[in-house]
Prior knowledge:
This protein is an alpha/beta fold. Helix content is about 40%, strand content about 10%.
Amino acid sequence: MQNTSTPIAAAGRYPRAVLFDLLTALLDSWTVWNAAAGSEQMGRAWRAEYLRLTYGCGAYVPYEDLVRQAAATVGLPASAPQSLDDHWEELPAWSGATELLRALAPHCKLAVVTNCSRRLGQRAADRLGIDWDVVVTSEEAGFYKPDPRPYRLALERLDVQPAEAAFVAGSGYDMFGTASVGLRTYWHNRVGLARPEGAPLAEVESPTLDGALPWLRGFRPAAF
């Protein structure tokens, strides 16, 4: 369902659209991965290997295949990826995520740009209880972030220029993509990930989403 709200032109402060990473910026996918792996240590190793594969492959390879390949590489049984899939509907939202989205909905178009399959991406997006204007998965875009094409596809579908939009990232790798597209970025670095070597700085980096609404509220000058 489309978000039919109209941005408040008189205020002139919010961006026309806010794009979000989904599985790290808004949802606590770490908890579900760790549970499927049997421990936090194995879950983090599995996730790190999956991220390495995802950010390294560029053109889309089935998400589920990468998850299984990463599990095998770190020594997890085939039951781990199946458990992750079985518990996908249990992905919890980070504190402040739903409140942020509800506060933005009257003012901005809202979109997801996620490294995921279409099937799992839509299921995860539905966890937030928001009528998203656009949900773009890597499967639809044909490429994984940080390739610029998933971000550009979302902007095209939103009919919004990069300068009129903001991005809320969950991974430092997103900054490679958002910088190339021209999207100002807030990095919600909840678990304290190291910034990848060579990655541009986010405009704001924070372990919480608390600063996102003030940042977005003052995004544009009144005369923009």
